[in-house]
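Q: Sequence in, structure out?
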Amino acid sequence: MTVRLKAPERRARIEEAAEEVFATHGYQGASLGLIAASAGISKPVIYDHFGSKRELHLALLEKTRDALLAFQAEQVSGETFEERIRSMLNAYFDYVERHPYAARMLFRETTGDPEVVAAHRAVIAEADRRIGSALRAEGIANPDVAAVLLRNGIDGLSVWLSDNPEWPRDEARATAIELVLGALAR
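A: Exactly. Output:
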């Protein structure tokens, strides 16, 4: 006997499968059929929740960004600037380690579709704005430039680590944090 999932559970299953498929195959290589097969559902069920592949991808970009930023906000703590930056970066690394496809979804442009490209850029711009605001509150000179450099460096490292699973995570994390702290201290 097959148990029918409730709508929110089906949607979550679709999103989880789609995140992996988009991250693994890119937007162009992903198909709703592949996503449905990965989710263990039929393709028409996807249309009960999303009108198109583009709509599903856009929803995932925003959901992943919001989840990452919320997780970071919950985890950031510390009395000193260094403690807060360490906790912010550790939270980021914890999130992408727990959600291995997040970095690929958020930080690799996956399509030439103008609407998806615009949404992708908006997601990144919002992340830069939030990081810049946090750095501004810490008194960092040129916080907007520092935010872009920080995000690009950490995002690039995250994608690289996902491509190089043999690399020791703790070593990469410690090196990244020390480099960021050194740069921001100047």
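The chain has one domain: 53-185.
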